[in-house]
Design a protein that fits this description.
One of its GO terms (molecular function) is transposase activity. By secondary structure, the protein is of the alpha+beta class. Helix content is about 45%, strand content about 15%.
């Protein structure tokens, strides 16, 4: 997120596990990196490997994963429901030195927060939509746990308090926005019937186009942010750049392309809109003194 680099790109079968992929992609992680992942990539083995590499992580707790506390040499299962009933809306507590799963993986910090009524309604609207699509209702315990936001992290408390950890985790949403933009702008999911070989050319060509435009877009965003403190919308910018990507790929000399004209177009037509009271990813990075 800070460098604009693509760490890894591979094409797999649609039914391959995200969690297994996360474990096999550990070689891209360097000491002092921060990995922010969604539940699809949740894996006790991957978390253990991240910690062993001297790397930091933030992840949500999977609803079926049990949490344990060690008291006087005895294991005690954490009763999150009792604790949750004591919290007011928007209130959070932090627990240190917990263990998760059958493996009893040590987690330095667990941050437990009760959602506000507005946040709960938004989450439930998403849950109901997902239930309808899959034709399967969630278990009572899973629904109950969705009243809360439970994060696991090994970030040191002296560097980031609980609220700052939540703000860092919110940056993960940029991945969803990016994928949505890729699907919309580059029509990733729209493929006509064709031979396998032609499809492979189409797929890899589209992925190359995405990487080229994404690399240029990152540099453009950094340029305007540093020069005029202007934030560029990735979605708006991709819409603009999509019509230029073939030039970036086919021209043999970058000097032939008027890059400044592209930069000016982005400044004029791709500024990020601001909703009242909402922080952008750049705002969060700046506030936390990361960017």
């Amino acid at each position: 997120m800070l460098s604009g680099a693509c760490l890894q790109l591979c094409v797999q079968s649609a039914n391959d596990s995200d969690a297994r992929f996360a474990y096999h992609a550990q070689h891209t992680i360097l000491p002092n990196d921060l990995c922010i992942r969604d539940l699809g990539f949740f894996s006790v083995a991957a978390l253990a490997e991240i910690d062993a590499r001297g790397t930091y992580s933030i992840t949500r707790l999977r609803s079926d994963m049990k949490v344990y506390i060690k008291e006087n040499g005895q294991w005690k299962e954490w009763d999150w429901e009792s604790l949750g009933n004591q919290l007011e809306e928007g209130e959070s507590v932090e627990m240190e030195h917990v263990y998760i799963g059958h493996e009893r993986l040590y987690i330095p910090r667990l941050i437990f927060r009760r959602l506000t009524a507005e946040e709960w309604q938004k989450r439930m609207a998403y849950v109901r939509k997902k239930e309808k699509r899959k034709g399967k209702a969630l278990a009572r315990q899973t629904l109950e746990q969705k009243k809360y936001h439970i994060l696991l992290t090994n970030l040191p408390q002296e560097s980031f308090d609980g609220q700052q950890v939540y703000e860092l985790y919110s940056l993960r949403w940029q991945i969803e926005l990016l994928l949505k933009a890729w699907k919309s702008v580059f029509d990733l999911e729209k493929v006509k019937e064709m031979k396998k070989e032609r499809f492979e050319c189409h797929l890899y060509g589209t992925l190359i186009a995405i990487l080229v435009t994404q690399t240029f877009l990152f540099q453009a965003r950094m340029y305007w942010h540093q020069k005029e403190d202007i934030q560029i919308s990735e979605r708006k910018a991709l819409d603009l750049l999509q019509s230029y990507w073939h030039q970036l790929l086919l021209r043999s000399h970058m000097a032939e392309i008027n890059l400044f004209s592209l930069l000016s177009l982005l400044r004029k037509h791709a500024k990020k809109g601001r909703r009242k009271g909402e922080e952008t990813a750049s705002d969060i990075l700046t506030k936390l003194e990361i960017w």
